[in-house]
Specification:
181 residues; alpha/beta; Dihydrofolate Reductase, subunit A; 8-stranded mixed beta sheet; two-stranded antiparallel sheet; 5 helices; 10 strands
Length: 181
């Protein structure tokens, strides 16, 4: 069965965005080999706001060939958008209801793993429904003080088991967890 992987940058104090939605604090470290992660997935789950910001993002025409290839690779994945307000999009499949049943059906399809991209509301829903198979968190060496918290308003404790950790020269620490059974 395919796994749902939450791969996410998080500040040292647990925020996934700054107070005004900024992500300029995220370090794009080549040593982290994000291309390897992208080779392991063929599907991306977005919330509406994240999809509208990044689901069809195109880099500037004068962007480096590496950045152009990076976004082309992401956009080649099958996209699902979870939203009650978005209309149908010809580049993504819309899921508006029956999230648990729909996601479990997708997990049982043939294919590679699935990237839970976010945003915060969708991540919260997936945590509450116990749909995340792996938490791959890249903790960045910055304290934001304010912003959008990763684990806000959870209704119950989330017990995780550390699978691996890796420290990069940039100061980013990648932690990989799975839920405890």
């Amino acid at each position: 069965m395919r796994k749902i992987i939450l791969d996410l940058a998080v500040s040292l104090d647990g925020f996934i965005e700054g107070e005004n939605g900024e992500i300029d604090w995220c370090i794009m470290d080549e040593e982290m080999d994000f291309d390897h992660f992208l080779s392991r997935i063929d599907t991306v789950f977005y919330g509406r706001v994240s999809y509208e910001a990044w689901g069809n993002y195109l880099p500037a025409h004068d962007a480096s060939p590496d950045e152009q290839a990076f976004w082309k690779n992401i956009h080649a994945k099958k996209k699902y958008v979870f939203s009650r307000t978005l209309r149908e999009d010809d580049k993504a499949t819309l899921i508006q209801e029956d999230i648990l049943e729909r996601v479990n059906a997708i997990k049982h399809q043939e294919g590679k793993d699935i990237w839970l991209y976010g945003g915060a509301s969708l991540i919260h829903t997936f945590i509450e429904l116990q749909l995340i198979d792996q938490y791959q968190l890249s903790v960045h060496p910055v304290v934001l003080g304010k912003g959008k918290a990763l684990y806000e308003n959870l209704q119950k404790r989330l017990e995780l088991k550390l699978i691996s950790s890796r420290t990069f020269q940039s100061g980013v620490v990648q932690l990989i967890y799975q839920p405890r059974s």
